[in-house]
Amino acid sequence: MTLKFKIRVSKKTKEGDYSPIYVRLYDGAICDQTVKTRCMVQPHFWDQKGQCIKYRCLCPEQERDTITSELLGIRSYLTSKYNECKQQGRSISDAWVLKTLTQYYKDGGRNAETQAKKKYAFDELFNQFLSVRNLGEGRARHYEVLRRMIHRYESYVRCATGRKRYTFDVVRVDKSVLDSVYDYIENEYEYVQKYEKILQDNPETRDIKPRGENYMSGIFKEVRAFFNWAYKTKIIDSFPFEGFEMPSERYGSPIYLTLEDVQKLYTADLSDDPYLAIQRDIFVFQCNVGCRVGDLLRLKKRDVINGAVEYIPTKTIKENARTVVVPLNSVAQEIVDRYAGLPGDQLLPFDTSERYNVSIKTVFEKAGVTYLVTKLDTVSRTEVKVPINEIASSHMARRTFIGNIYKLVKDPNLVSALTGHVEGSRAFTRYRTIDIDMKKDLVKILEGKQ
After folding, report:
1. Which residues pair with 324 in a beta bridge?
2. Which end of the chain is less congested by CB atoms within 10 angstroms, N or C?
3. CA distances from 240 to 175, 211, 227, 317 (A)
4. Are residues 414 and 297 part of one domain?
5. Contact, 428 vs 415, CB < 8 A?
């Protein structure tokens, strides 16, 4: 179910005139109704993307608060009533939104003063936040991970403090609460062992492992984005991140395969395990086209056009719907031709990304690509030596594609045209490390062998 607000401006609307705000409730084939509310706003004050009064406009504060409060009340009321109807199995009539909104006003609605003092349920506000964000499929999944973490944090506080009715009240969050949330998420693997009820309350939770600062930085960027939205829309009066120190990110040099490594994988004898041979072919194909695993899994036969694979990366499709075109070299074309007779429209016989990643490690081991590499342990922030097969994954194929091309052309804009990175992506800065071949050429200067 999606609920959004919008305005309709007629050609006769003049500067200073007010236009009504409409509410649209959409839920597939079940409901798609748009109704005019009693809220009025000057069109140049309205932020359609943010579903609110523009943050920096000169709208009078009382007017801003009243409209913000009223829209939150309408959203909360319609959402709760709609979910109640669905849970009880009642049908949604063609005039359901109009009748429910009329009842909302009959009940007195919510004025700005009482709304400001309301204890906001995290899930309700988080749903509103997600509904106005232009998120791709992958980013949306990340935010759902954050939602489940907050649910577990609530259980943790109840267990650790004895506050049996504790909920994550967005209005009351300040720096001290953020510090507490940070401590919980960073050390969650210890807390879930100490308080078994956390996992009992949240049975969908997977194995929880120690987390480093890179992970914490990513999570808290999402937390900050949520509170930034809540602050700009006047749901909260102050921004809780003032004075909060965000964790920093640090990455080691990207680890990727040499072209010789890829050839060794491709020519390895895996005839005793046909399934593994297929996964090997898919990995080598990915090394030669460079797409992310999510895009790899959804490639269809029709995506190969004039000897090149064409797709729009799902990660950036919302912000940048640029089509990526990667010409197929002889190896990639050979793999495509090998599976051309597959039934259906899939380009290659893909399995799940989970099984694919497990298979890649086995392929490396059987092919003898097991040499030691140096990597940064993002939890301990120390260097460790590990066999490359133990850290092999689908994303290593993408790094292999980028690393080997970048090593030759040193042009991030040219490489991004083949990878789907947004222009100016910081990812390429990690590929500027001087590799061992370049170092060998440099030291030869000392021998007079330039």
Report:
1. 311
2. C
3. 5, 23, 8, 31
4. yes
5. yes
- Is residue 449, in this structure, part of any structural domain at all? no
Assigned domain for 144 exists? yes
Q: Are residues 348 and 434 in the same domain?
A: yes
Please name which of 1, 128, 14, 141 lies closest in space to residue 75, comparing C-alpha atoms: 128
Separation of alpha carbons 305 and 215, rounded Å? 38
Domain holding 434: CATH number?
1.10.443.10
| Claim to verify: residue 272 and residue 180 sit in the same structural domain | no
- Report if residue 240 sits inside a domain: no
67 and 100 in a single domain? The answer is yes
Long-range contacts, 249-253 (Cβ 8 Å, 24+): 249/213, 249/214, 249/217, 249/218, 250/213, 250/214, 250/376, 250/378, 250/381, 251/214, 251/376, 251/430, 252/374, 252/375, 252/376, 252/383, 253/430, 253/433
Q: How far apart are CA 273 and CA 365, in angstroms?
A: 13
Measured between alpha carbons, how far is 38 from 226 in angstroms, rounded to an integer?
28
Whether residues 331 and 430 fall in one domain: yes
Among 118, 149, 177, identify where a domain stops: 118
Q: What's the structural domain count of the chain? A: 3
Range of the domain at 409: 259-444
Q: Are residues 327 and 203 in the same domain?
A: no
Residues 156 and 303 in one domain: no
Question: Would you give per-residue pLDDT tens digits along the chain (450 residues)?
Answer: 888 899 988 777 777 788 889 999 988 888 999 999 989 888 888 888 777 887 667 778 778 778 887 888 888 888 888 888 887 888 899 899 999 999 888 876 644 334 433 445 688 789 888 888 877 677 788 899 999 999 999 999 999 988 888 889 888 899 999 999 999 999 999 999 999 999 999 888 778 988 888 889 999 999 999 999 998 888 888 899 988 988 877 766 788 999 999 999 999 999 999 999 999 999 999 999 988 888 898 899 999 999 999 988 877 665 666 788 889 999 999 999 999 998 889 999 988 888 999 999 999 999 999 999 988 777 777 788 999 999 999 999 998 988 888 777 766 666 766 776 666 566 666 655 545 565 666 566 666 555
The total number of residues shown for the chain amounts to 450
